[in-house]
From TrEMBL:
Presence of the UniProt keyword Chaperone in the record: no
Source lineage: Bacteria, Pseudomonadati, Pseudomonadota, Betaproteobacteria, Burkholderiales
Protein name: Lyase family enzyme
Domain Fumarate lyase N-terminal: 2-134
Keywords: Lyase
Domain of life: Bacteria
GO cellular component, one term: cytosol
Any coiled-coil regions, as ranges: none
InterPro entries found in the cross-reference section: Aspartate_Ammonia-Lyase, Fumarase/histidase_N, Fumarate_lyase_fam, Fumarate_lyase_N, L-Aspartase-like
GO MF annotation list: aspartate ammonia-lyase activity
PANTHER family reported for this sequence: ASPARTATE AMMONIA-LYASE
GO biological process: aspartate metabolic process
């Protein structure tokens, strides 16, 4: 029952039941509880009145908001960014091309909004290439 209810929630069938603003000010406690209540209510409907379903137990028995909310956000961000990995690879290749093409171009470095030691512009693009190569792994 709970798994069916969760599936329906994931499909968006009960979006109108989420009355708590996703950007509410707490650490996600209200949003987490709103999810638990919607899932429990729908599981109760699926199972009938003979099977009581409480929002805390068994819908959310071993998790706290400090577990669920950060994990859900990390999963959501991962899913949103995953399609960008190929784009990031193309960007890295463009930076690497500029690193080679501008290896001999002198560039005045900047630090703290002041002029700094001169460097080759290719070095700068090489740094960008390295940064974009590392990020998808993390």
């Amino acid at each position: 029952m709970i798994a069916l209810a969760c599936g329906e929630v994931a499909e968006g069938r009960w979006d109108s039941e989420f009355i708590v603003d996703i950007f509410e000010g707490s650490g996600g406690t209200s949003t987490n509880m709103n999810f638990n209540e919607v899932i429990a209510r729908r599981a109760q409907q699926i199972g009938g009145d003979k099977v009581p379903v409480h929002p805390n137990d068994p819908v959310n028995p071993w998790q706290s908001t400090n577990d669920v909310y950060p994990a859900a956000m990390e999963i959501a961000v991962h899913r949103l960014l995953l399609p960008l990995v190929d784009e990031l690879q193309q960007l890295r290749q463009a930076f690497a091309k500029h690193r080679r093409g501008m290896a001999e171009v002198l560039h005045l470095g900047r630090t703290c909004m002041q002029d700094a030691q001169p460097m080759m512009l290719g070095q700068k693009f090489g740094g960008y290439a390295e940064l974009t190569a590392r990020r998808p792994k993390n």
